[in-house]
């Protein structure tokens, strides 16, 4: 941050998650905060930077003038929560923010495992009613609009969940297909063998000198003409010291002397 009371402080992803409310929301309340792993704010800020650079270059082509880009992890943290960073003067600070679906869109238990379903629109809700064997709900006066479904959520959610209890989350996921946007709730470990992940070649196997063979993520973006180097294992401490020193003009004898004196390990 260029200005303000925090401008002289370093930026750290997890620090800003806790400062900005992300950890409270991720954990489901102030009593059990939880971090979003994977440095989500670092990545999002990088994406905003790339967007800003592209916009600045476009402006330069149009006007001949450059732009100064100002980004921060705080800006990113609030932007990524823009749907919740809204507060009307007529409501309390604890006003709930959801998508207005009244609980029907969300994660539900099944016979085995949890299932996320999205039934914002009427045609998705009608498809859900048909596929779970409750077609009469589609024409029920309580269900004719998203607003009416939200108003009767306390009655409708148990009815839908009772129907979902007939099958497992994976079975529903296959049955719903494209007619009802959904996903069985999975741990990330399941992604190593997911058909879509494998088809996109998102996982690579690497050999590490300390931990042995392991599997990891490949590059998140694939370019047709500039594929870049093959993925490599993360280096161990001092693994490439000799190469770095040699590239900077140190002889083999000088490097050996640095090691003997404990300057390089």
Characterization of this structure:
The structure is a single chain. The chain has 265 residues and is mainly α. The chain folds into 4 domains: 1-97, no CATH class; 106-185, formyl-coa transferase, domain 3 (2-Layer Sandwich); 187-234, no CATH class; 237-265, no CATH class. The chain contains 11 helices and 5 strands; from the N terminus they run H-H-H-H-E-E-H-H-H-H-E-H-E-E-H-H. The strands form 2 sheets. A 3-stranded antiparallel β-sheet has the order 1-2-3, covered by helices on one side. Helix 1 (13-20) packs across helix 4 (73-79) and helix 3 crosses helix 4. The longest helix has 24 residues, at 40-63. The chain is extended. 12% of the residues are buried. The mean pLDDT is 90.
Short description:
With 265 residues, the chain is mainly α. The protein has helices at 13-20, 22-27, 40-63, 73-79, 122-131, 146-151, 153-164, 169-176, 195-199, 241-247, 252-260; strands spanning 106-109, 114-117, 182-184, 203-208, 212-217.
